[in-house]
Design brief:
The strands form three sheets. Strands 6-3-2-7-8-9 form a six-stranded parallel beta sheet. A two-stranded parallel sheet has the order 1-10. The chain has a single domain, classed as Rossmann fold (3-Layer(aba) Sandwich), CATH 3.40.50. Helix content is about 20%, strand content about 25%. It is of the alpha/beta class.
Length: about 210
């Protein structure tokens, strides 16, 4: 069994209404992470939850780009940007946490993607790699050494967060059953899991945790 210890933190990535069934950009079975996270969240000494928090007209929205449709890919400032339906607009209901998510144990909420001109999949830095969110400094300040990553979606924001967490010097464990992927194109989810393993991260199920 995996014992949770001082210096551990749980990251809950983007478990928001727009990423769950009925939302603007639903991850298949995205709300399935909620009971899994709720079962484990109080076992962690520190919990950080992230929210996509986009201004209207965000660079990642297909509606911002004339003649473009959701899920097309364009080059912006030297990076490849997938264009999404408008989602998680700051202050709207779609940006709220999924209502059944247990948030009382959340110690910090970090909002990302707040710059209209750059996207931010990772909880640690913007996609153009020029600016951090401050999460690494926060985690170090509270004594975190090891992070467990959960949330949405495995092959997008969870993947980016896990990889950047590893680059920032943290031990990283991805809780596979507390995440859901989009798997677009098909095989992308499997590729993301292999990439995280190859970078030295562990992939674990929550039933291996000593709660």
């Amino acid at each position: 069994m995996e014992q949770i210890r001082a210096g551990d933190a749980l990251l809950i990535v983007d478990v928001q209404k727009d990423f769950c069934p009925g939302g603007a950009l639903p991850v298949p079975e995205g709300d399935g992470v909620v009971p899994v996270i709720n079962r484990i969240v109080r076992a962690f000494p520190a919990v950080v939850a992230t929210q996509d928090w986009h201004p209207e007209g965000h660079i990642s929205f297909a509606s911002r780009h004339a003649g473009k449709k959701p899920f097309e890919v364009v080059g912006i400032g030297g990076t490849q940007q997938v264009l999404w339906p408008d989602h998680c607009v700051a202050g709207t209901g779609g940006a709220d946490f999924q209502p059944a998510l247990e948030t009382r144990a959340v110690r910090f909420v970090l909002r990302k993607g707040t710059d209209r001109e750059v996207d931010s999949y990772s909880a640690f830095r913007d996609n153009d790699r020029r600016r951090t969110t401050g999460l690494a400094s926060l985690l170090r300040e509270i004594g975190t050494e090891r992070i467990y990553v959960s949330g949405l979606a495995t092959d997008v924001c969870v993947r980016a967060t896990a990889l950047d967490g590893r680059d920032a010097g943290f031990q990283v464990i991805v809780l596979e059953d507390a995440c859901r992927g989009v798997d677009v194109p098909p095989g992308n989810l499997k590729k993301a899991l292999h990439e995280m393993k190859d970078r030295g991260m562990r992939i674990l199920r929550t039933d291996a945790l000593q709660i």
